[in-house]
Design goal:
The structure is a single chain. The protein folds into 2 domains: 184 residues, no CATH class; 297 residues, Glycosidases (TIM Barrel, Alpha-Beta Barrel). 21% of the residues lie in helices and 21% in strands. The protein is built from 9 helices and 27 strands. The strands form 7 sheets. It has a 6-stranded antiparallel β-sheet with strand order 1-5-6-12-8-9, with no helix packed on it. The two termini are 38 Å apart. The N terminus is likely disordered.
């Protein structure tokens, strides 16, 4: 392990009041924030080799400047992507990040945005039920603290020499960007009748029902005229012009020339580019009870057109939405559903189910991901994943975590209840060639499990056996691991046909640990979000704006397609989460479409670009 020293340089200026503010290098006096011997670079190898920038006292304060700018030099004759992460104990994935693809023997710059919140309240205002919300100066940030950073890490993927790139400089710089000031006394209500933020304008915002209907007509014309991004595909989205394998009538996995692939029912190679949570309505309710003054308009519950979009839920919140002690019934409403009625009129449900498949085809997305509508899957026009879970089965008393205790797969009741659930699904899809595979559960609490290997073996082996007996033609896609003991991954690789992981990062920077079986992997969730289109939380990985968001999406998929083990990656999710938070308070800007069902054009263009290059990129031809 080698250690070198590096100087951090910040561009610093004094305002007329004497308060410090950051400005551009052209107008400011340079100032070294940390002395030359105050920071060191630790060079590390392994699966993700790179360089970690650390303060000798253990803590870096990089607050105050809007941008962290790193210049890097590539010491090889091959292009290389370098990823940047600022580590500060933030929640899953939520941390400043950046990346650059360095040209052969060339240099590149990573500009990492350190100021994601473009607004501030003039004084505190209690706003509940939302992960992201405007705050007053001095309140704890929605996002992350830059005053106590543990390290700034730069790394590449496995197999690369960690000395193959050099950090030339790391600087804090840029003009302090002004923030929009919202006045707390006039902030409420802040949600309009379409579920949008009232206090800002942006491209694509809806202002009338007529505008919604016009957009539907314009998109219909576009879908009728646009071509498929990659024409050499079969009906399932497989690579019709690629190498031929045995046609079994169902999806399977196969390794060819050192790379794992899905093989579609026709025997063509298939790489899965998907989107999760594709629904017409009913998936994005937001709470109203106790927050009625957040909304400028709500329909009456007996409204003949919109009354059906009310519901009553119970939820024990772990983020303080309502009572932490007991489930309390509260009213919820579905703004996306009301917008679909306005946009598509009579027969909107049936129209939207068809539209979902038309969009996916035009965007070049070939898989319906987890938690999507069964009614959309049953049209059998796009390969889909089946979503099953073990809710209601016995739980282990010796485990706990974010989502509660693990299933007790050794209990006879577990097998009985889970088998019933599988048989119910099998009644409509047992012999369906359009089913890519079956997910069971999501982000189970595998972290710090006593005797993880034994618990995991009981769980995965039981689930695998039941699926083989009830759904013999379909792949077991695992449980979408979010975190856990390495032993869990090793056991999963033995029993799952495909090991699924949810990887919220700038790139698919996870792999199976040493000692695992040689198994394919599927990214079950990833996303990026920005705050330039009226949303209050970026989601788990932040982008500066929609243009950078689209670039991050494209680069993530490109990196996934070149990893030999990864057979697909699915974006979370189809639609932005509610502005005022869903059942667990998440209000992420993570959709391919917004609350008014308007697709984000930058993301659509990126999806089409990836589709046009996906199979040549995967095959290396």
């Amino acid at each position: 392990m080698a250690t070198d020293r590096i100087a951090f340089v910040a561009v610093f200026a004094l305002g007329v009041t004497g308060a410090a503010s950051f400005a551009s290098s052209a107008a400011a006096q340079n100032r070294t924030i940390w002395p030359d011997d105050g920071v060191e670079i630790e060079t590390v190898g392994g699966k993700f080799p790179g360089q970690h920038v650390k303060a000798k006292n253990g803590v870096l304060d990089i607050s105050g400047a809007p941008e962290l700018v790193t210049t890097l030099s590539n010491r090889t004759d091959k292009a290389a992507q370098v990823l940047l992460y600022v580590h500060n104990g933030s929640p899953q994935g939520l941390t400043p990040t950046g990346s650059v693809t360095l040209p052969p023997c060339g240099t590149g710059v990573i500009v990492c945005d350190l100021n994601p919140e473009p607004w501030v309240l003039d004084k505190p205002l209690e706003l509940v039920g939302m992960s992201g919300r405007p705050m007053a100066e001095g309140e704890k940030s929605t996002f992350y603290s830059l005053k106590s950073v543990s390290s700034i890490d730069y790394f590449r993927f496995e197999g690369e020499d960690p000395k193959a790139f050099e950090i030339v400089s790391v600087e804090l710089m840029g003009d302090e960007r002004p923030r929009k000031v919202f006045h707390a006394d006039s902030f409420l209500p802040f949600v309009d009748g379409y579920g949008q933020f009232m206090h800002l304008e942006w491209p694509g915002k809806v202002h009338s029902d007529e505008e919604l209907r016009r957009r539907a007509e314009e998109e219909d014309a576009w879908l009728a005229s646009v071509g498929i991004p990659f024409p050499d595909i079969d009906a399932f989205g497989g690579w019709a012009a690629g190498p031929k394998r045995e046609a079994t009538g169902f999806f399977r996995v196969e390794k060819m020339d050192g790379k794992w692939w899905f093989v579609d029912p026709l025997g063509n190679l298939f790489w899965s580019s998907g989107i999760d949570c594709i629904h017409a309505n009913g998936s994005e309710f937001t709470g109203v009870s106790g927050r009625e003054n957040y909304f400028s308009w709500l329909p009456a519950k007996d409204d003949p057109r919109f009354g059906m979009f009310w519901d009553v839920w119970k939820w024990k919140s772990w983020r303080g939405y309502y009572s932490k002690e007991e489930n309390i019934p509260y009213d919820v409403i579905d703004f996306p559903g009301m917008n679909l009625v306005r946009k598509y009129g009579d027969g909107w449900r049936e129209k939207y189910r068809e539209l979902a498949h038309r969009r996916l085809r035009a965007w070049g997305v070939n898989t319906i991901g987890n938690w999507s509508s069964v009614d959309i899957c049953k049209l059998r026009k796009t390969p889909y994943t089946l979503c099953l879970d073990t809710r209601g089965t016995p739980r282990r008393k010796d485990t706990d975590g974010r989502w509660g205790p693990l299933p007790d797969a050794e209990s006879p009741e577990f097998e009985t209840k889970f088998r019933e659930r599988v048989r119910k699904a099998a009644a409509w899809m047992k012999d369906d060639p359009w089913c890519l595979g079956v997910f069971v559960d999501n982000e189970l609490s595998w972290k710090r499990v006593p005797d993880a290997a034994a618990v995991a073996e009981a769980y995965y082996s039981t689930v695998k056996r039941i699926l083989r007996e009830e759904l013999p033609n379909h792949l077991y896609l695992g449980d979408r691991i979010g975190w856990g003991d390495p032993e869990v991954y090793r056991v999963a690789s033995r029993f799952c046909d495909v090991v699924s992981l949810n990887i919220y990062s700038r790139a698919p920077d996870h792999d199976l640990p040493e000692g695992s079986e040689d198994a394919p992997m599927l990214v079950g969730e990833f996303h990026f979000g920005a705050l330039d289109r009226g949303m209050l939380h970026t989601g788990l990985v932040t982008a500066r704006d929609q243009e950078e968001r689209a670039r991050c999406y494209l680069e993530y998929l490109r990196q996934s397609a070149t990893r030999p083990r990864i057979v697909g990656a699915h974006w979370f999710q189809w639609r932005d989460q509610p502005l005022t938070g869903r059942f667990d308070c998440e209000n992420f800007q993570c959709g391919f479409v917004d609350v008014a069902d308007t697709p984000y054009p930058e993301l659509v263009d990126a999806a089409r670009q990836f589709a046009s290059e996906m199979y040549p990129l995967r095959s290396g031809k």
